[in-house]
Description:
Helices cover 73% and strands 1% of the residues. By secondary structure, it is mainly alpha-helical. The protein folds into two domains: 86-214; 228-466, no CATH class. Strands 1-2 form a two-stranded parallel sheet. It is globular and about 85 Å long. The termini are far apart.
Amino acid sequence: MGKMKENGVRNRQKNGKQNGKQNGVSKHEDERKDEEFSIRQSPLTELIDSSLHIRAIYHIFVVILIMLLCDTVIYDLVERGKINIGLSVIAAGFGDIRRGLKLWVYDLCVVMAFYPLIMVYAFIGKYTRKYTVLRPAVVLLGVAGVIAVEVAIAAVPVVELARKHLELGSSVAVTCEMFRFLMKIVAVSAACGPRCLNGHLPLPTFKHYVYFMFSPTLLYRDQYPRTNKIRWGVVAFHLSEVAAIIFYNCFLWERFIMPYWSDYGKERTVEAGYLVRGMFACVLPGVISFLCGFYCVLHAWLNAWSEMLKFGDRLFYEDWWTTSRFSLYYRRWNRVVHSWLRDHIYLPLAPLTGRPLATFTVFFVSSIAHEVILALSFGFFYPVLLVEFGVLGVIMVPLTATSGKRFPNAFNLIMWLSFFIGNGILWSLYPMEYFARRNCPPSENDSFFIPKSWTCPEVILKPNWTFQNPLRILTN
């Protein structure tokens, strides 16, 4: 009965969206109302609990990890007399973690200091409320204060990572937390700024402010649906999944990526065939890492924090894997970030600039943020993801808007094909550049923004290579 009720609600929401299609921005306002918080589980939680088929797929991924471990352990033991299971990659990937923790604590202190600034701004707003001539100056003061806090949150980690690069895992953690705090501050400011000026609604307590900063959402609300108790067994299970997936990805890096790319740049030339073979070899581990990364962050990690904080709404994503339209994929893949982009960028801009420009701005901001995270994490600017996501992904949105509805099966296959190709490219080009900067000799032309792998090593064809007609055998 519960599932029937949920399906009925979704159908009513779908019909409401279709009825509002001609109303421009009102359609998205309806979506915003539909997405108010309620107690609900993540889709994969429901699928794994209710479907033996999905549970079997989950077990298959676990068995794949076990078999890969057995392969590496037995081979290394027989061939080299030692056991190597990827722990060295984990230790290296999270190197200098103390420095990364210091940067996170700094950002946390700035975020906590923002609360008393809100109280001060509310005091100023209260005593200048009757002086309407001062209202523009007070608004500008608030905007300037928010910008100053945002700069303080971002400046120190960016400067520190540029001055001395952290290892990949530590850098990813620091930069992702930096962006999370930046978006949280915007959400709090948008909710509390008008209250400070008008005094119509009370400001959040410090306890609720802290709760919001650690809750698995980027949208500020005065109240969230809460569960009755913390199931510590569920917390332990999800955190163990996070640890296992980190180990899994490091193992994939060591087992499949490093054999192809760790020596890239040590030789002055490399054959084109070797690059092609390596890029295709990275497709499957790239897709597995893509799926594991999604499950780790948007399911296991967020569900663990939800359980610890009794946060009831756990719809952090939807069934993006079944869609045939890129627009639906972008909305369903990460509802946490999508909701923030919708509320704080799209909806304010759409009435002023129109929906197309507002949509483009959302894609632009999101792709730039992703690229900044990768640039700070790797220590170089290489806009592969920017091109895939911010250019090709944007182009695919209108191309699949109608055709995806007419041919859902075909375009779902096309989407998955794009995931395979795109992740294979990502897991090839970024490691190539990463190891080229480590292995190639330094040059006066070295730059943060110019890829070194384009010039070192030189890509050549195999000696005496000639094109042979594959149909020749049919004509003989």
